[in-house]
C-alpha cells in the first residue's frame, strides 16, 4: 500500500476510535473529554478539506499551514454544529449519535480523497 494513504486511513478511523474511547473508557473522564474535543476540533474538518482540496485549482490551495489549520478548525466546528442542530431539532440528541454521524462523515470524506484526486487529474488532462 502507498505510504501517503496511511494518514487518510488514520483519519478515517479516528472517529470510530474516539467513539470507542468516549463510550467504553469508564472512570477516565479527562481522557474521554480530551480525545473527544481534539477529534471534534480537527478530524471532520481535516477530512472534508482533504476531500475537496484536489478539486481546487493549484493556486487556490497554496496557503500556509496556519491557513489550513484555521480552515480545518472552522469546518470541524461547522460540521459539529450542523449535526448537533439536526439532532436537537428532532429531540433525539445524544453524544453517541452525534459522534457516530461525524465519524461516518469523516470516514467517507477521508476514504473519498483518492477518488477526488483521480477525478481532478482526469479533469486536468482534458484539453
From TrEMBL:
The chain crosses the membrane at residues 37-56, 68-89, 95-118. Keywords: Membrane, Transmembrane, Transmembrane helix. This is DUF1616 domain-containing protein. It comes from Planomonospora corallina.
Amino acid at each position: 500500500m502507498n505510504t501517503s494513504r496511511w494518514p487518510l486511513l488514520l483519519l478515517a478511523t479516528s472517529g470510530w476510535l474516539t467513539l470507542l474511547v468516549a463510550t467504553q473508557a469508564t472512570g477516565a473522564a479527562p481522557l474521554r473529554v480530551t480525545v473527544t474535543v481534539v477529534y471534534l476540533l480537527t478530524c471532520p474538518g481535516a477530512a472534508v478539506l482533504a476531500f475537496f482540496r484536489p478539486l481546487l485549482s493549484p493556486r487556490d490551495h497554496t496557503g500556509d499551514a496556519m491557513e489550513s489549520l484555521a480552515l480545518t478548525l472552522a469546518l470541524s466546528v461547522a460540521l459539529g454544529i450542523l449535526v448537533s442542530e439536526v439532532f436537537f431539532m428532532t429531540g433525539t440528541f445524544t453524544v453517541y449519535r452525534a459522534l457516530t454521524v461525524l465519524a461516518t462523515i469523516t470516514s467517507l470524506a477521508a476514504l473519498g480523497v483518492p477518488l477526488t484526486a483521480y477525478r481532478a487529474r482526469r479533469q486536468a488532462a482534458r484539453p
